[in-house]
């Protein structure tokens, strides 16, 4: 019941669901500096050719890259993308009251707006949707 209610609220917001790679290439994580700054929380590995990868702690970089590469008109905004997937982190201490260990399921919502006032409208709409889910 809660899942159905959450899906209905996400759909009402006009969000599009996307599925992304669980093990992004290192260059996607390196670009914003997260590869170096994250430390041991980031589970890293190499493929057989020696290329660096990690188990994705988030998909912020992937969604930002996707939107940056996609030709969009003003009519495409506000753009609201989400994904529900397995994330991987190896955290030593709780964040926001939660201790997330290696693998957990997380719903991420990424919104793209034309200006700050429209971003505030999106924030209010999303906050209202979450209140209706609860």
Features:
single chain, 134 residues, alpha+beta, three-stranded mixed beta sheet, 21% strand
Structural notes for this entry:
This protein is of the alpha+beta class and 134 residues long. The chain has 5 helices and 5 strands; from the N terminus they run αβααββαββα. The chain has a 3-stranded mixed β-sheet with strand order 1-4-5, with no helix packed on it. A two-stranded antiparallel ribbon has the order 2-3. The protein starts with a helix and ends with a helix.
Report a brief summary of the structure.
The protein is α+β, with helices and mostly antiparallel strands and 134 residues long. It is built from five helices and five strands, in the order αβααββαββα. The chain has helices at 2-12, 26-30, 34-37, 60-69, 116-133; strands spanning 16-17, 44-46, 52-54, 79-88, 103-112.
SS-based structural class?
alpha+beta
Helix content: 25-40%
Overall geometric form: globular
Biggest sheet layout:
3 strands, mixed
List strands and helices in order, with pairings.
Blueprint: H1 2-12, E1 16-17, H2 26-30, H3 34-37, E2 44-46, E3 52-54, H4 60-69, E4 79-88, E5 103-112, H5 116-133
Parallel strand pairs: 1-4
Antiparallel strand pairs: 2-3, 4-5
